[in-house]
Design goal:
Helix content of chain D: 25-40%
Radius of gyration of chain C: 23 Å
Largest interface: C-D, 61 and 63 residues
Order of helices and strands of chain D: EEHEEEEEHHHHHHHH
Radius of gyration of chain D: 21 Å
Distance between the termini of chain C: 51 Å
Bound molecules: flavin-adenine dinucleotide, iron/sulfur cluster, FE3-S4 cluster, FE2/S2 (inorganic) cluster
Helix content of chain C: 25-40%
Shape of chain C: globular
Strand order of the largest sheet of chain D: 2-1-5-3-4
CATH class of the largest domain in chain D: Mainly Alpha
Distance between the termini of chain D: 63 Å
Strand content of chain C: 15-25%
Largest sheet of chain C: 6 strands, parallel
Strand order of the largest sheet of chain C: 1-8-4-3-12-20
CATH architecture of the largest domain in chain D: Orthogonal Bundle
Oligomer: heterotetramer
Number of helices of chain C: 15
Shape of chain D: elongated
Number of helices of chain D: 9
């Protein structure tokens, strides 16, 4: 009799390392992109607190503003800003890749789709700034 | 149809949240998080802000700005936990934490914005 | 399709005569029909069986995953009458004259009639044929064809055909695939072929697969030569298997050289490049084909003329240019230039994207602005296992289709784009014929087990448990390839061929002393190389032998010592049998002529 | 250019190795050599026991995918000289079980491919003398996805597949999409039922590496995102028309 295992190959299946996202730059970029969502959530929390502060009167709002000036919060928000911009850029570029827009039977190149995204970004940011800063 | 999952719904919220976060959050953080506290620009007064907030459109705007990005976070964070930390077996816990968080945040936003007199 | 690894399908349909596991490591399974080869011909046959006789269980045995088969590499297109101004007779005539009247004309007539239907069937299965602006299937001109009739899917026709066939085959449950199983021997009992022994690559297990009929679809044997467009897997296994089992090989002396291969890699630059208007230039920038009775140069491509002449004549012209010292000396020997520059970037990018991709990648040359160095390379075997119109060989229960078979519609020289439709037409025919035959057969005979055990012992003794051995596989293979290229190439002579025959016999002897380093069971590719080499040696011997006997020049077989065609003696197919001494023995059989009596082959007029 | 290069090849034999290791060889470095040529040189002249798959040597059969210096590549289309002065490290494709040396078990993909029904589905058939008209624009709509050679580089690059082998993966989904977008096909709904389950399109987090490594520009990442959009639209439709026309 043969030893059956001799002909049933055992194969080697490497377990994916816990730090797989450190093995290649592209993976790290991916994880950073995903982690950006944490900062998105963080700033939503800030905004909720802000709404509460604004609606409960000038004193509370002043307190809130002082809190924002603390070095910890400033650092945190600077990092958040970096990540949220990173999110915006990757988001616009990727949605250009994910979308197929055809004009006259030809697929529009990614840039043609990304460009309006960036334009919309500029307009929206401008509008928000204008409303807050005017007069 | 019930063979298909409810992923489309979550994905829709995630995508919408992604768009909103990308379009609006950078400027909000830049202004409220950095420029105003650092004094680079003059911060709008509480009066002006309360005036703005009372407008229904602003309320709707703020509601969207808070709610959808939270669902965006919930979706992405869920997968980051699955893949980055390889803890997919904690699936249910993760889902409750992420989407639950987003729902709570949304409710909070609604509550705050509703109660402005 | 069912997977072999699925235990539920192990015993399908088997009558239970044998133990599943014998004392050795033999495993046995049983089907109604076994197909060897999962290329275009094999998959078409499998689908044909599933459609005509859904109750029959079919096994597809392939040494590579089906979509890796070499049909995947075909670029140019597939011929089938499509336009109103074309006719079946014209396609038949082009094929027959292109084959220098060695084609069986009844086969050609059946072929041209069914080719358009088969190609349309593929359309229905989703093949992405290129289209004209109205949405109709587009056709392009091709070498040796008087009318425009070559269907194409950009310049990846074979790739799209194979993937369409493979993906379509996935929906048939009666088909069991044995992926990465290497067939080593046919099982013959009582004069009937009733199965095959195969080696499972991933485990090294030996599997006997019994069946009522076996269809060989193993493709060609271009690897017998040094310089070829053919993939590593094209080693003539099926031809050797049939030959060893006693079936004759037909017209093996006819080996097609394609005039335009890239030097070093042998990668093919498709004929479509010339069909779109590419020019062949010698070192003086001169369109030299005009000197070889192939017409006069026109700026636009003219069908059946100049660059669109048949492959044999173009390859022969290259040799003459080389003798006259008018070729370009490249790092890998003499070349001529294929000039596409005047076609412009748009045509090249739209019609020949793959050509550009290959040139850029492998030669660092951009055909939009540079000429492509090319030389003739071995491309296709006109010969193969002798079959009739339905793919049946003279051995009961054994069928063959595709490049490994010789029906023959290709005669002494195949026209470009006739092979892909041939796979479909005769794959389907062989499939249906085998199904009809199998339906009437008794279950497999009792002597098969002994044979399977015998084969297993052979594999063990000759290879896996063999000790000593001094001859490296690669050396023997390289020597064989050199012999074939030097002595049995585009031009041959009695002397060169008898020299080749002697040297090949020597190699056969040396093969017995082969050296193997790998004694493992799992994915032993060295063992596979050895088995393939032994197949190639057998096939090479048959090529040399019947080339030596054919003392005339016809189509791709050009003898310097007998430069003329000799219809008197050689309007005949050669049939090579394996003699009792193991040496090839050649007989001849008449060519079927129906409506087109032999005439001179005229091009460019 | 130096005329030799060092190449480190992953070796594994299930009969006597617990896990893969490396063997180092020195091979000639020639301008026109691809990584596969180096492996063949090793097999023919240095070590006959090295196992790997290859066939066409022209980037179309899809059998020679391996990891070269960490990145999934078709070794017959990857030039050795691009890695000079070396060393070059050749490993089997990631995310698949290794059977031996550089040979991996990709049968999982074939199961998944079969499940996504990559064939034309239609209610009624035209007779064989009639064609289904398809304009070049309609052809263009799915053409890109039909270029997949099943080389599995995308699976090797996709971390999601590595972490969750149940995930259908890029190529299988791209091929399903190839048929969905074919104007001759009517099976989109059947495929959607299968691929819109958890392990189908929703597993993908749009890492996008599948598209980056694809040697045939198939863009599976794009195919999956578009498929998500379709699935969502269908879901909304079903919501509005609960027993609706789907
Ligand atoms: C580069 C190139 C371009 C071409 N272009 C064209 C063209 O434009 N038009 C045209 O008409 N023709 C063309 N041809 C010719 C045509 O492609 C081939 O003749 C045809 O594809 C052969 O198909 P097949 O099914 O017979 O064999 P293949 O596709 O070669 O398949 C052989 C099958 O047999 C299996 N097999 C072989 N040996 C064994 C074994 N021992 N055990 C198990 N399985 C085995 C293999 O695994 C494989 O599945 C071209 C050929 C080449 C090389
Ligand atoms: S999608 Fe690209 S990378 Fe993936 S299998 Fe197909 S060809 Fe290979
Ligand atoms: S890499 Fe994987 S996660 Fe999606 S985009 Fe590609 S399948
Ligand atoms: S050998 Fe065929 S793709 Fe590389």
């Amino acid at each position: 009799m043969i030893n059956p295992t001799e002909y049933v190959p055992k194969s080697y299946h490497a377990r994916v390392s816990t730090y797989w996202w450190l093995t290649r730059w592209v993976y790290l970029k991916f994880i950073l992109r995903e982690v950006s969502s944490v900062f998105v959530a963080w700033f939503v929390v800030v905004t909720l607190l802000q709404i509460r502060a604004v609606t409960s009167g000038p004193a509370d709002y002043g307190e809130f503003q002082r809190w924002l000036r603390s070095p910890l919060l400033l650092t945190l928000n600077a990092v958040s800003f970096f990540f949220v911009v990173f999110h915006a850029v990757t988001w616009f570029n990727l949605s250009a890749k994910a979308m197929v827009v055809r004009v006259g039977g030809k697929r529009l190149p990614g840039i043609a789709i990304a460009a309006p995204n960036y334009a919309a970004w500029a307009v929206a940011s401008g509008a928000v700034a204008w409303i807050l800063l005017r007069g | 149809m019930n063979k298909r999952s409810n992923e489309p719904f979550l994905w829709m919220l995630f995508s919408a949240g992604g768009v909103i976060s990308a379009l609006l959050l950078p400027i909000h953080i830049l202004l409220f998080g950095l420029a105003f506290p650092l004094g680079c620009l003059d911060a709008p007064s509480q009066e002006k802000l309360i005036h703005l907030i009372k407008h229904p459109i602003t309320r709707l705007y703020l509601f969207t700005l808070c709610s959808l990005p939270l669902f965006h976070w919930a979706h992405r964070f869920r997968f980051t936990l699955y893949d980055g930390l390889q803890i997919k077996h904690l699936n249910e816990l993760i889902n409750v934490f992420c989407y639950g968080g987003a729902v709570v945040g949304t409710a909070l936003a609604a509550y705050l914005l509703w109660n402005i007199r | 399709m069912i997977f072999r690894s699925d235990p539920a399908c192990l015993d399908t349909g088997f009558s239970g005569v044998y133990h599943r596991r014998s004392a050795l490591m033999l495993d046995i399974s049983s089907h109604d029909i076994v197909l060897i080869g999962g290329g275009g011909a094999g998959l078409r046959a499998a689908i044909a069986i599933s459609e005509t006789a859904p109750n029959l269980s079919v096994a597809v045995v392939s040494k590579v995953y089906p979509m890796r088969s070499h049909t995947v590499a075909a670029e140019g297109g597939a011929a089938g009458v499509h336009l109103a101004e074309d006719s079946l007779d014209e396609h038949a005539y082009d094929t027959i004259s292109g084959g220098d009247w060695l084609c069986d004309q009844d086969a050609v007539e059946a072929f041209v009639k069914e080719a358009p239907l088969e190609l349309m069937r593929l359309e229905h299965w989703g093949c992405p044929w290129s289209r004209d602006p109205n949405g109709r299937i587009a056709v392009r001109p091709f070498g040796g064809m008087k009318k425009t009739r070559t269907w194409f899917a950009a310049d990846k026709t074979g790739f799209h055909m194979l993937h369409t066939l493979f993906q379509t085959s996935l929906k048939y449950d009666a088909v069991t695939r044995y992926d990465e199983y290497f067939a080593t021997r046919l099982l013959v009992d009582d004069g009937r072929v009733q199965g095959v022994v195969a080696l499972e690559l991933t485990t090294g297990k030996i599997q006997a697969i019994t069946a009522k009929a076996v269809i060989l679809c193993t493709g060609g044997c271009g690897r017998v030569f040094r310089f070829t467009t053919n993939a590593a897997i094209k080693t003539g296994d099926g031809m050797a298997l049939a030959y060893r089992a006693g079936a004759p090989l037909k017209d093996m002396e006819f080996v097609q050289y394609h005039p335009t291969g890239l030097p070093f890699t042998g990668i093919l630059i498709t004929e479509a490049a010339r069909a779109e208007g590419g020019h062949l230039l010698n070192k003086d920038g001169y369109r030299y084909l005009q000197d070889y009775n192939l017409g006069t140069p026109e700026p636009q491509p003219v069908l059946r003329s100049m660059e669109l002449g048949p492959r044999d004549r173009l390859s022969q012209a290259f040799v003459h240019e080389q003798e006259k010292g008018r070729t370009v000396e490249g790092p890998y020997g003499p070349v001529v230039n294929l000039d596409l520059r005047h076609l412009g970037a748009k045509t090249i990018n739209e019609k020949l994207p793959f050509v550009r991709e290959l040139c850029l990648k492998y030669e660092h040359i951009d055909p939009i602005s540079q000429m492509i160095p090319v030389r003739p390379v071995v491309h296709y075997m006109m010969g193969g296992v002798h079959t009739d119109l339905n793919g049946a060989t003279p051995m009961k229960g054994l069928y063959a289709a595709g490049e490994t078979a010789c029906v023959s519609i290709n005669g002494a020289n195949r026209l470009g784009s006739n092979s892909l439709p041939e796979l479909l037409v005769f794959g389907a025919r062989a499939g249906s014929a085998a199904a009809a035959y199998a339906a009437e057969q008794k279950p497999p005979g009792r002597h098969l087990l002994a044979q399977a055990l015998d084969e297993e012992a052979r594999l063990q003794d000759q290879f896996l448990r063999k000790t000593g051995g001094r001859e490296p596989i690669a050396d023997l293979r390289e020597e064989m390839q050199k012999i074939m290229e030097n002595c049995a190439g585009i031009y041959r002579s009695g002397d060169s061929l008898s020299g080749a025959a002697g040297k090949l016999q020597e190699l056969q002897d040396r093969f017995r002393d082969i050296r193997l380093d790998d004694r493992g069971h799992v994915f032993n590719t060295e063992l596979i190389s050895a088995l393939e080499l032994s197949c190639m040696l057998d096939v090479a011997e048959t090529i040399a032998e019947c080339a030596m006997r054919r003392t005339e020049s016809r189509g791709a077989h050009q003898r310097t010592d007998y430069p003329a065609r000799d219809d008197e003696k050689f309007l005949a197919h050669s049939l090579t049998y394996r003699g009792a001494d193991g040496r090839p023995r050649v007989e001849y059989a008449p060519v079927t002529i129906t409506r087109w009596p032999p005439a001179e082959r005229v091009y460019g007029r | 250019m130096a005329n030799r290069i060092t190449i480190e090849v992953a070796r594994y034999h299930p009969a006597h190795d617990e896990k893969p290791g490396f063997d180092t060889y020195e091979v000639p470095l020639r301008k026109e050599w691809v990584v596969l040529d180096a492996l063949n040189y090793i097999k023919d002249h240095l070590d006959g026991t090295l196992s790997f798959r290859w066939s066409c040597r022209m980037g179309v059969c899809g059998s020679c995918g391996m990891t070269v210096n960490g990145v999934p590549k078709l070794t017959c289309a990857t030039f050795l000289s691009d890695y000079a002065p070396g060393p070059v490290r050749v490993e089997p494709l990631k995310n698949f079980p290794v059977l031996r040396d550089l040979v991996v078990d990709t049968s999982d993909f074939l199961v998944k491919l079969g499940k996504s029904k990559p064939w034309i589905i239609r209610k009624v058939e035209k007779p064989l003398d009639e064609e289904y008209l398809q304009t070049p624009e309609e052809l263009d709509a799915y053409k890109q996805y039909s270029m997949c050679i099943n080389c599995m580089l995308c699976y090797a690059a996709c971390p999601v597949y590595g972490l969750d082998p149940l995930f259908s993966g890029p190529a299988a989904i791209a091929l399903a999409q190839r048929y969905n977008l074919d104007s001759r096909d009517q099976g989109a709904n059947q495929r959607l039922d299968i691929l819109s389950q958890h392990d189908g399109i929703w597993g993908c987090t749009f890492v996008g590496e599948c598209t980056q490594v694809c040697p045939k520009n198939v863009d599976p990442a794009g195919a999956i995102q578009q498929y998500k959009l379709t699935a969502t639209t269908e879901w909304l439709k079903a919501l509005v028309l609960p027993r609706g026309g789907t």
